[in-house]
Specification:
568 residues; globular; phosphoprotein; Rab-GAP TBC domain-containing protein; GTPase activation
């Protein structure tokens, strides 16, 4: 540094003369512009910019270099001093008084809003009580008129029995609804809470298992009852005709017989009825033998990454499990991504079942190991086999209410049926996933033949099929369809020869062309990718899936035995 007192320190000089010096941006990190506090900036801004010589003079000494050098970071030093002085001059009493006024005003507004809400609630409750009284009077009049036709014993039985006309009728309330006189001494809010029916958690449309094309009643149509009878007659024989069972199953399997039908079509159960029970016992014991032999090794160094990934891919796990097993790394990742909207899959016991199934499969298949996406393939089997033990809806069902033996059977059956499925598509999950790469390429060729406009439109905006269809092949469209539609789709896959490995390709082609109009309306890469990764299928049911399968069958009939049709 120079010892001359008249000179500035190194990199210090009048910042206003520095071309391109840094200026404050007001409104982001700084307060609004104040001319009084920033007068020097105004003066600096009014000065004309210094003339830039064509060739700058080269500094010959350190003093000349210092005299021609400025520090751009020094801009605003004087401004900061002025701001600090202004802050010191503020009267602390004024500040406190203003703050107290703000707090008082806020408290008054909150109290006023609370009073308004209470008044509105009381008015609504009075209206509801009045309506209930009117309905009770009307019902009483109707009962008086019909008193001669119905005896008291029959009336009481019809009210208390959970069965009506041979069908289960679910109660809309866990506690009887009392009259206003019974709860006159209770607070209005408590009366309203007890008078409302008990409602389970709201399930999003995409996560509901019931077919959206039906009315939701338990009554079956005549055609559905006839199909169910055909299935039962076929399954009741000593040796089930699997070919005939496949023909019946192609158009969908009734819920009542779906568990045993899936087990037969997947090859898990033999066609001979006498051997089925012994096979089930042997395979279930074999599975839990694997659990005893391998599951404790999940924390070993060479298995912990696999287990952590599975644990995260299954629906959201309790934080305690992550704390108790800090070394576990891979099974833990994929669990939250499996149907996170369905409460069934957020139960701890269900998550533990999924972890065991996926970990044992990964240990027994070292060629592929666990690959993200396999976790999705367990869920249809698990849901279908739960239906074997319950009658009600499965979305909110508490599996802990099942007997331990039933849960063990569901777990073992799900493992073996998933294993049978993956045996046919294991090249989808080996190193580099060659099966998926090959199928996506064939899908591209197929779409170019059946709908050239869609194909050229995606080519024009540089959309690669692998960017969206990889997930279609990896997860078998489970991320694109509601679970109820996946189960219906798998009815046909189970019935179709090589349904998961071959027929699925034509389903993907039909699925893509199904959105032809929406695809052609998108005019950029981003819009196309958002559409293809978020297709609006949440309202889909059996009808939409049946149409999709019919179109896929037509494509298979035209192209499956004529591969040269792919090429031009």
């Amino acid at each position: 540094m120079s010892s001359d007192g008249n000179k500035r320190q190194f990199w210090k000089r009048n910042a206003a003369k520095v071309p391109g010096s840094i200026q404050h941006v007001y409104g982001a990190q700084h307060p609004p512009f104040d001319p009084l506090l920033h007068a020097n900036l105004i003066k600096a801004g009014n000065k004309p910019p210094p003339a830039t010589p064509g060739k700058p003079k080269k500094a010959t000494t350190f003093q000349e270099f210092e005299s021609t050098t400025s520090d751009a970071w020094d801009v605003g030093d004087d401004d900061d001093e002025l701001l600090a002085m202004a802050a010191q001059n503020l009267n602390i009493e004024v500040v406190m008084e203003t703050a107290n006024k703000v707090i008082e005003n806020h408290s008054r507004q909150q109290e006023r809003q609370r009073q308004d809400d209470t008044t509105e609630l009381e008015q609504r409750e009075e209206e509801e009580v009045a309506e209930d009284e009117e309905e009770d009077e009307e019902d009483e009049e109707d009962r008086v008129e019909e008193g001669d036709m119905t005896s008291p014993e029959v009336s009481l039985a019809s009210q208390s029995s959970p069965y009506t006309d041979g069908r289960l009728v679910k109660s809309h309330s866990e506690a009887p609804i009392g009259s206003p006189k019974d709860v006159a001494g209770e607070p209005a809010a408590l009366h309203r809470q007890r008078s409302l029916p008990h409602r389970p958690p709201l399930i999003p449309l995409v996560a509901r298992m019931a077919d959206q094309n039906t009315s939701g009643t338990l009554a079956m149509t005549e055609r559905e009852a006839s199909r169910l009878d055909k299935f039962r007659q076929l399954l009741a024989g000593p040796n089930t005709d699997l070919e005939e069972l496949r023909k019946l199953s192609w158009s969908g399997i009734p819920r009542q017989v779906r568990p045993i039908t899936w087990k037969l079509l997947s090859g898990y159960l033999p066609a001979n009825a006498e051997r089925r029970e012994s096979v089930l016992q042997r395979k279930r014991q074999e599975y839990f033998g694997f659990i005893q032999q391998y599951y404790d090794s999940r924390n070993d160094e060479h298995h912990q990454d696999t287990y952590r990934q599975i644990h995260i891919d299954i629906p959201r796990m309790n934080p305690e499990s992550l704390v108790l097993q800090p070394k576990v790394t891979e099974i833990h990742i994929d669990i939250p991504r499996t149907n996170p909207l369905i409460p069934l899959f957020q139960q701890a016991s269900v998550q533990e079942i999924f972890e065991r199934i996926l970990f044992i499969w990964a240990i027994r298949h070292p060629a592929s190991g666990y690959v993200q996406g396999i976790n999705d393939l367990v869920t249809p089997f698990f849901v279908v086999f739960v239906f074997e033990y319950i009658e009600e809806e499965v979305e909110n069902f508490d599996v802990s209410s099942l007997q331990e033996e039933a849960l063990r059977n569901i777990e073992a059956d799900s493992f073996w049926c998933m294993s049978k499925l993956l045996d046919g598509i294991q090249d989808n999950y080996t190193f580099a996933q060659p099966g998926i790469q090959r199928k996506v390429k064939v899908l591209e060729e197929l779409v170019s033949r059946i709908d050239e406009s869609v194909h050229r439109h995606m080519q024009h905006y540089e959309v690669e099929y692998l960017q969206f269809a990889f997930r279609w092949m990896n997860n078998l469209l489970m991320r694109e369809l509601p679970l109820r539609c996946t189960i219906r789709l798998w009815d046909t896959y189970q019935a179709e020869p090589e349904g998961f490995s071959h027929f699925h390709l034509y389903v993907c082609a039909a699925f893509l062309v199904r959105w032809r109009k929406e695809i052609l309306e998108e005019k950029d890469f981003q819009g196309l990718m958002i559409l293809l990764q978020n297709l609006p299928t949440m309202h889909w049911g059996n009808e939409e899936v049946s149409v999709l399968l019919a179109e896929a069958y037509r494509l298979k009939f035209a192209f499956a035995d004529a591969p040269n049709h792919y090429k031009r």
